């Protein structure tokens, strides 16, 4: 298949590596940031397209790796053109945008996959298999932590565009908690942004989210953009009536940046990537694995393993957490999340 990538940043390079690793050909790249697209094309040898429409028209599959607030525009355009779509997490910035994206894909009858890549990390995948099998008994308390340095690109620090640390970073663990422990009925959150004026640079946020699951289990989720570069740590504990699963990147193979096919530099000129991207000790990295799973589903004509509805479910939790932090009150999930 001919793969077209929209976006030319760090995740676009990561996806390029994944597509090439599974034997597919990335034939084009488009980004409104022309300089980044030119650099991507020069480093990889793919052709830079002058518009999203041009790239979509020539592609068999469209991979959207652009900033969150642009996802709706590109996903709906690809769906209207009848092209299968893989969209980086989070699915969208708003629920209305996400609903429109799902509706466009449904009208066109095309698959829409979402990059909730945490499900493909060996440590997390193994824990999910054990917990979902019932081997741990009734799940009681789950704890997840994801602490990173702040992304370099200014749009991440604009909550109206990125959704901040909850929507951009913590959505990984919100999705995973729901995947493991089942539907969520209540969300409570608090974000520490001490000293920060909305809309201006300042201390990076550190957030806590508590999920109440329909089963009665409770998930505690921590996320932070306050780590110094290049530190990035993750951990989890999953406790059930029959046992406990634990994992910490500090006690295992280190999580390190996953680099693209050509050396890239952060915005500050250092060799540290502008966004923290975790790696796994398994031979087949999770980013490649999720793209292979999506490709195989497209070829087989089956639903993507992680589709638009699950992307919407994770988005709803993140948006509820953002609302809870704004009001200082828990948010009830109107309909049980999927």
Describe this structure in words.
The chain is 36% helix and 22% strand. The protein has 10 helices and 13 strands. The chain has a 7-stranded mixed sheet. A 6-stranded parallel sheet has the order 3-2-1-4-5-6, with helices on both faces. It is globular. About 5% of the residues have low confidence.
Q: How do the helices and strands line up, and which of them pair or pack?
A:
Blueprint: E1 2-6, H1 10-21, E2 25-30, H2 34-44, E3 47-48, H3 52-58, E4 61-64, H4 71-80, E5 85-88, H5 95-108, E6 112-115, H6 122-133, E7 139-148, H7 159-162, H8 164-181, E8 184-192, E9 206-213, E10 218-224, E11 232-240, E12 243-248, H9 286-300, H10 308-327, E13 331-332
Parallel strand pairs: 1-2, 1-4, 2-3, 4-5, 5-6, 7-10
Antiparallel strand pairs: 7-11, 8-9, 8-13, 9-10, 11-12
For this structure, what is the CATH class of the largest domain? Alpha Beta
CATH architecture descriptor name of the largest domain: 2-Layer Sandwich
Major sheet size, sense and barrel closure: 7 strands, mixed
- Helical proportion, percent range: 25-40%
Order of helices and strands: EHEHEHEHEHEHEHHEEEEEHHE
Uncertain residue ranges: 254-270
What gross morphology would you assign?
globular
Which structural class is indicated by helix and strand composition? alpha/beta
The averaged pLDDT comes out at 90
């Amino acid at each position: 298949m001919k793969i077209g990538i929209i976006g030319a940043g760090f995740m676009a390079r990561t996806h390029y590596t994944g597509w090439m690793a599974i034997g597919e050909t990335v034939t084009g790249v488009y980004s409104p940031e022309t300089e980044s697209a030119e650099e991507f094309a020069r480093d990889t040898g793919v052709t830079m397209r002058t518009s999203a429409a041009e790239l979509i028209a020539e592609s068999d599959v469209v991979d959207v790796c652009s900033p969150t607030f642009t996802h709706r525009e590109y996903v709906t355009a690809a769906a209207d053109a009848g092209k299968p779509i893989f969209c980086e997490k989070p699915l969208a910035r708003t629920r209305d945008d996400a609903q429109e994206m799902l509706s466009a894909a449904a009208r066109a009858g095309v698959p829409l996959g979402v990059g909730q890549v945490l499900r493909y990390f060996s440590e997390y995948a193994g824990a999910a298999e054990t917990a979902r099998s019932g081997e741990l008994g009734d799940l009681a308390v789950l704890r997840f932590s994801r602490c990173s340095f702040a992304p370099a690109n200014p749009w991440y620090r604009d909550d109206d565009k990125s959704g901040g640390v909850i929507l951009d970073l913590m959505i990984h663990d919100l999705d995973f908690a729901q995947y493991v422990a089942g539907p969520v009925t209540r969300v409570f959150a608090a974000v520490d942004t001490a000293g920060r004026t909305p809309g201006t640079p300042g201390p990076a946020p550190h957030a806590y989210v508590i999920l109440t699951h329909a089963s009665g289990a409770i998930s505690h989720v921590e996320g932070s953009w306050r780590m110094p570069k290049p530190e990035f740590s993750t951990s989890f504990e999953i406790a059930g009536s029959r046992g406990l699963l634990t994992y910490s990147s500090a006690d295992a193979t280190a999580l390190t940046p996953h680099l693209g096919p050509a050396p890239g530099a952060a915005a500050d000129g250092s060799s540290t990537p502008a966004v923290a991207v975790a790696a796994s000790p398994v031979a087949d990295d999770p980013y490649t694995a999720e793209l292979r799973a999506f490709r195989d589903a497209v070829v087989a004509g089956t639903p993507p393993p992680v589709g638009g509805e699950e992307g919407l479910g994770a988005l709803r939790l993140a948006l509820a957490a953002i609302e809870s932090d704004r009001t200082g009150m828990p948010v009830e999930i109107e309909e049980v999340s999927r």
